Amino acid sequence: ISGYSLVIQARDSGTPPLSSSVTVNVDISDVNDNSPVFTPANYTAVIQENKPVGTSILQLVVTDKDSFHNGPPFTFTILTGNEEEEFTLDPHGVLRSAVIFKHMVATEYVLCVQAKDSGKPQQVSHTYIQVRVIEESIHKPTAIPLEIFIVTMEDDFPGGVIGKIHATDQDVYDVLTYTLKSEQKSLFKVNSHDGKIIALGGLDNGKYVLNVSVSDGRFQVPIDVVVHVEQLLQEMLQNTVTIRFENVSPEDFVGLHMHGFRRTLRNAVLSQKQDSLHIISIQPVAGSNQLDMLFAVQMHSGGFYKPAYLIQKLTNARRHLENVIRISAILEKNCSGLDCQEQHCEQSLSIDSHSLMTYSTARISFVCPRFYRNVRCMC
Q1: Quick one: DSSP state of residue 257?
Q2: What is the third-level CATH fold of 35-132?
Q3: CA distance linking residue 285 with residue 242, whole number of Å
Q4: I need a labelling partner for 127 at 20 to 30 A (CA). Which of 69, 187, 296, 341 fits?
Q5: Longest C-alpha distance within the chain, in Å?
Q6: CA dist 332 → 134, 136, 366 (Å)
Q7: Which residues of the chain carry a pLDDT beneath 70?
Q8: Could you give the residue ranges of the DSSP H alpha helices within 247-306?
Q9: What's residue 223's pLDDT?
Q10: Residues 96, 56: contact at Cβ < 8 Å?
Q11: CA distance 227 to 135
Q12: Do residues 276 and 233 lie in contact, with contact meaning Cβ atoms separated by under 8 Å?
């Protein structure tokens, strides 16, 4: 407890008694009676041979239960094991290489490190670090090509994470880093540590081929990353049809079924090869294991097929479509729960282009806007 706040009252013996009170604050001064604590108590680390001088090997973690003026900053010193000065330890507790290690020269080093706090008198503690020198990488990283589909309203893409590169390396201790060629950094970024791809705002309609590579420090391997951006037209939203799938997650649909279903759907609803199928969005149905896919079909001449025509085509081809994935319903209007009797049900569809959903798998990523349906009875 660092302090107490007491309210003290004095009362006299008169009639009636009179009193007064005062607040007394008692601060407890800290004594430097706690030594620094290493977490964990001892360390093990590895470094590959032939790594350049200055390679980071280990970050020491030290805490102190005393108050801030009796704790950090800590002073680190290598007491033993560094007689040939193969290592350096910076003021932040980062252990780095001071030479280029060779596996044939030595395979293991044991360092005794001291941490000293800033109190008076200073308190110290010790830890041991075992550093193993391993052979350099012999395997190249392997990466899966990634194809990304982005659907957005016209000139209204807000940007965000659009996918993730999946790469592996058979060398157990290799650390993979990802890079993107500088000329593409005005539109995209790649997280160097985890391979996440970030698109900046304002992407135009079209196809982008990203120049991405992954490196294990010795080998650098290019990765095929293609981004397709499709901007929606307002007219599409007035001619959409929804297919509702049963027992499928968005990621499973994107990774396992989307390509095959798109091909089967094209054969079912396109009247001419020049017609274009547009998958506008996919999103889970709240409170269920169902999934809605919103799409429209554009004629070669530029207009869009009416929903009634598409639904007729879908109904006739439903058996073939279900060879790919189980369909729960084909919806033009979603008036469930409304009793319009002899009146008509009117549906309006709205797109929230700033609420993007990213469904990412190892090979395919699909980024689309969230959509909402509003239905009402009309005379």
Answers
A1: I
A2: Immunoglobulin-like (2.60.40)
A3: 12
A4: 69
A5: 108
A6: 63, 60, 23
A7: 155, 332-345, 347, 378-379
A8: 250-252, 258-269
A9: 95
A10: yes
A11: 38
A12: no
